[in-house]
From TrEMBL:
It catalyses: 2 cob(II)alamin + reduced [electron-transfer flavoprotein] + 2 ATP = 2 adenosylcob(III)alamin + 2 triphosphate + oxidized [electron-transfer flavoprotein] + 3 H(+); 2 cob(II)yrinate a,c diamide + reduced [electron-transfer flavoprotein] + 2 ATP = 2 adenosylcob(III)yrinate a,c-diamide + 2 triphosphate + oxidized [electron-transfer flavoprotein] + 3 H(+). It comes from Caryophanon latum. Its EC number is 2.5.1.17. Pfam families: Cob_adeno_trans. This is Corrinoid adenosyltransferase.
Length: 192
């Protein structure tokens, strides 16, 4: 089996139910989601099973959900059957809450860094934010898009932030705080 088809040589790509220019906003978004999935895979290679089993399980599920997002975004059929539902969003919210409870209180802005895995999760967070911005453009310009993807991406970036902090915490590495900023987060946990 050959992996090249030559059908994209003229700048068009195949979608589910049609074709589009490779620089179409829809292709941009699912391309960014694919890039994000690669960073999730990289983060997984930087985490050991013993210390980070729960986060590895999360990331494994997220990789499949990102594939669902890509498929949904590539679907231009008149009556598409979307794969991504609200359920993974609820799961992410529960995991974010658990991770935030585990991490030290957050008082200042955090710079990407710490352990290699935490840094990779911060890259995943920023790529997720880019995909989310692209989704806003897509849903403004095109009808028939699974809007659950936008909501999922919004929650996913929060998950990556919380996970990066816990990865550093479990490794005994302090988050890198933004030095020029004062205390900006005031939560009940901080007041204890």
């Amino acid at each position: 089996m050959k992996i090249y088809t030559k059908t994209g040589d003229t700048g068009k790509t195949g979608l589910i139910g049609g074709r589009a220019a490779k620089d179409d906003i829809r292709v941009e978004v699912y391309g960014t989601v694919d890039e994000l999935n690669s960073f999730v895979g990289k983060a997984m290679t930087e985490l050991d099973e013993e210390t980070y089993a729960d986060i590895l399980n999360d990331l494994h599920a997220i990789q499949h959900e990102l594939f669902d997002c890509g498929g949904d975004l590539a679907n231009v059929m008149k009556e598409p059957q979307f794969k991504l539902t609200e359920e993974p969003i609820t799961v992410l919210e529960n995991r974010i809450d658990a991770l935030v409870d585990e991490a030290p209180p957050l008082e200042k802005f955090v710079l990407p860094g710490g352990t290699p895995a935490a840094a990779t999760l911060h890259i995943a967070r920023t790529v997720t934010r880019r995909a989310e911005r692209q989704m806003v453009t897509l849903t403004t310009e095109v009808e028939g898009v699974n809007v659950v993807v936008q909501k999922y991406l919004n929650r996913l970036s929060d998950y990556f932030f919380a996970a990066a902090r816990v990865v550093n915490f479990r490794a005994g590495v302090q988050d890198v705080e933004y030095a020029r900023g004062g205390k900006v987060f005031h939560t009940k946990k901080n007041e204890k």
